[in-house]
Amino acid sequence: MQNFDVAIIGAGPGGYVAAIRCAQLGMKTAIIEKRKTLGGTCLNVGCIPSKALLDSSEHYHNAKDKFATHGIRLTNLKVDMKQMIKRKNEVVEQTTGGIDFLMKKNKITVFHGTGALKTNTTIEITGDDDKKESIEASKIILATGSKPNLPDAFNYDGNRVISSKEALEIDKVPKKLIVIGAGVIGLELGSVFARLGTEVTVVEYQDRLLPTMDKDASKELNRALKKLGIKFNYKHMVTEVKATKTSATVRFQKRDTETIITEKADYCLVAIGRVAYTQNLGLENVGIPMDDRGRIEVDGHFQTAVPNIYAIGDVIKGAMLAHKAEEEGMYVAEYLNGQKPHIDHNLIPGVVYTWPEVSAVGKTEEELKEAGVAYKVGKFPYKALGRARASMDTEGMVKVIAHKDTDELLGVHMVGARAADMIMEAVALMEFRGSAEDMARICHPHPTYTEAVKEAALAATESRPIHI
User: Fold this and answer.
1) Distant-in-sequence, close-in-space partners of 254: CB < 8 Å, separation ≥ 6
2) Integer angstrom CA distances of residue 362 from 74, 314, 347, 365
3) Would you state the torsion angle of the CA atoms of residues 167, 168, 174, 177, taken in this order, to the nearest 10 degrees?
4) Distance between CA atoms of 137 and 201, rounded to whole angstroms?
5) Is 251 helix (H, G, I), strand (E, B) or coil?
6) Looking at 59, 345, 446, 467, which residue is catalytic?
7) Number of alpha carbons in the 13 Å side-chain half-sphere of residue 413
């Protein structure tokens, strides 16, 4: 039986980053992955392939709706969906191949199969051929991630009632798509198909899209996606989903009424969130408890009830984000090495890759109100930016929230072109407890989208934005 200093179950962003950092710190490291390729959901059927399709579909949408305004005239424009999927698969292959290279570079031993805890130091690995082998490890990190939440009542069949995984493989533009859930996954994939000409209907139980994000950002994106042609049914609950070989029928009812709507589509995408993947992990063999949502309970150092076993990423509490898992993986590796790492979960940014993009860090205005914190707000619209007008990306805004008395930045929320990249200015300043005035006094290059950040900070500091 091979013996390791540390073994990681799960090779997603959390697991493979933890493995690399452990190896860098001199630990003999193993990683176990049930897929044939490394990278987990994110690289294989999540973040990376969805962004590839989002970019491809945005190129087509711009060519169809905006190029003529730029003086670029096209004829016989059409979607080659099979090529779009082929390119997406090539991006995935290149990215997962890069993880293979990193494992070899860092001399990490890779096992392909399903890992399960037998004791607190023994992991049994079952391969595709049901062949079993066991390894020993002094420390174990659980990083098995999450899977789509697919309630039995929705009759998921992977054919017409689908999850995000199957949505990424559709190689013919559907005439109609019904999306259950107005969260990140539903909006991103709904955007892909809406841009390509699909009639997209979204059914959401809450009263708005992105219900966990700032209300102003939610309203701004709602306007943009409606212009794209997406139809939203808020405050509606799904009562029935049925599928045939060629279609899906969804019945949904407006909350607190008897009004029932029935719609038929080529596909029904179930996008109501994800659940921790802890099945068959052997937690019961070592006495590791889970909470009522099936997540592994950990302390402030990501240590489970069993002292030498740790858990990170989607299997524990917190936002289900690849970069959160990465930071937690780094933290555990360094903690095991006797270091004193740091992570502030309040300052983990969130991004939605629609167009316009949405990004945020820190507290929402609603959270601050509920907590009774005194705050002030500054906003600045994209339409007042010269750079945005030049690129025809005038939808969006930046919102800066600072403490009313100390001026410390408490939250920054953005909707607009390149918001996913721009949010890092706010993250960096907030890590050092910067103020709105600090943000406002930094010289921002002109003409850029980032000028909206400076102007919003000026609005929050002294209610003195320059360009509105």
Assistant:
1) 233, 235, 236, 261
2) 44, 20, 5, 10
3) 30
4) 49
5) strand
6) 446
7) 24
In the block, which residue shows the tokens 């096992």?
111
Q: Say how far apart CA 457 and CA 464 lie, in whole Å.
A: 9
CA atoms of 140 and 137, how far apart (whole Å) = 6
Beta-carbon count within 10 A of 342 CB: 9
Q: H or E stretch including 402?
A: strand 397-403
| Residues 6+ away with beta carbon under 8 Å from 71 | none
In the chain the domains, ranked by start, together with CATH numbers, are 2-147+275-345 (3.50.50.60), 152-272 (3.50.50.60), 356-462 (3.30.390.30)
- Contact yes or no for 253/239 (Cβ under 8 A): yes
Matching residue, tokens 């008395």: 405
Q: Give the pLDDT confidence of 349-407 residue by residue, as tens digits.
A: 999 999 999 999 999 999 999 999 999 999 999 999 999 999 999 999 999 999 999 99
- The Cα-based distances of 393 to 284, 390, 417, 419 in angstroms read 53, 8, 6, 12
Q: Has 70 been annotated as catalytic?
A: no
Q: What are phi and psi of 395, to 5 degrees?
A: -80, 130
List pLDDT tens digits, range 107-121: 999 999 999 999 999
- Measured CA to CA in angstroms, residue 432 lies from 260, 378, 405 at distances of 51, 20, 18
